[in-house]
């Protein structure tokens, strides 16, 4: 029993000493590798980097008409709730207007595209010219000319009771009936409104209702009503009906 205990203790000491020697060797190897990696880190390292880039969006998938429609238009549900009243202020612009292939923000000469390949006896080289500072202003002016147009101003005699609205404005004499011409007559619009009727098969049906009065200034006058889908037709109907219902009124000084 004693011999076995002595032998086992000796083997334990030998294995422990071998373990310490191996641990020292491993630490030395780690230190050497660390110094070598530190030296290598001083050199410029180029590591490839990956960037997620999505080259497609609704801007380059959809045409310009549909994109402008998404900006300007209002849904039927929105119209019922009174939205989109100021949508008419925004008008679509053709952003391709003024854009020419080969001419851009960077003023570069491209032989065969924006310039001839041979000029005289010399071969034209690709080169960059000074930047055109007025280019953006010119493009903006061209695009604004398509949208911003000057409204025609009405003379004070041609205006209505409230600005340029139809009530109070003159629409001329009634149309002649066979050989009878309404000379000296003038027609004024008294009322112009939109009427909505609910139909069982068509739903809400919108029409325009107009009331006008016509006269010659000598006591002969008449009034009439007209209803139609558009404003011009309703005014024409009311004007012609007013000419068919003339009445004479005695004038008082």
Automatic annotation (TrEMBL):
Gene Ontology cellular-component annotations: mitochondrial small ribosomal subunit
Occurrences of domain S5 DRBM (ranges): 203-249
Places the protein is found: Mitochondrion
Keyword Secreted: no
InterPro entries: Ribosomal_uS5 (IPR000851), Ribosomal_uS5_N (IPR013810), Ribosomal_uS5_N_CS (IPR018192), Ribosomal_uS5m_N (IPR048584)
Record Pfam families: Ribosomal_S5, Ribosomal_uS5m_N
Keyword presence, Chloroplast: no
GO biological process: translation
GO molecular function: RNA binding; structural constituent of ribosome
Keyword list, A-Z: Mitochondrion, Ribonucleoprotein, Ribosomal protein
Main localisation: mitochondrion
Domain of life: Eukaryota
Family per similarity comment: Belongs to the universal ribosomal protein uS5 family.
PANTHER family: MITOCHONDRIAL RIBOSOMAL PROTEIN S5
Name of the protein described by the UniProt record: Small ribosomal subunit protein uS5m
Organism (species): Culex pipiens
């Amino acid at each position: 029993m004693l011999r076995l205990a002595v032998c086992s203790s000796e083997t334990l000491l030998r294995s422990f000493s071998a373990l310490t020697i191996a641990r020292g060797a491993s630490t030395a190897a780690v230190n050497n590798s660390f110094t070598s990696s530190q030296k290598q880190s001083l050199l410029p390292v180029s590591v490839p980097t990956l960037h997620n880039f999505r080259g497609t969006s609704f801007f380059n998938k959809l045409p310009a008409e549909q994109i402008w429609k998404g900006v300007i238009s209002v849904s039927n549900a929105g119209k019922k709730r009174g939205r989109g009243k100021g949508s008419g202020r925004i008008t679509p612009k053709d952003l391709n207007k003024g854009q020419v292939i080969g001419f851009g923000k960077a003023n570069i000469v491209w032989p065969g595209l924006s310039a001839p390949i041979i000029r005289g006896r010399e071969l034209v080289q690709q080169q960059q010219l000074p930047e055109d500072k007025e280019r953006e202003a010119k493009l903006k002016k061209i695009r604004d000319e398509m949208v911003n147009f000057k409204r025609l101003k009405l003379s004070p005699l041609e205006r209505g009771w409230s600005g340029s609205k139809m009530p109070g404005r003159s629409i001329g004499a009634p149309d002649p009936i066979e050989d009878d011409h309404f000379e000296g007559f003038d027609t004024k619009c008294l009322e112009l409104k939109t009427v909505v009727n609910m139909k069982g098969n068509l739903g809400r049906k919108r029409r325009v209702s107009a009331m006008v009065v016509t006269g010659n200034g000598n006591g002969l006058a008449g009034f009439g009503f007209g209803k139609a889908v558009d404003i011009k037709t309703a005014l024409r109907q009311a004007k012609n009906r007013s000419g068919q219902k003339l009445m004479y009124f005695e004038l008082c000084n």
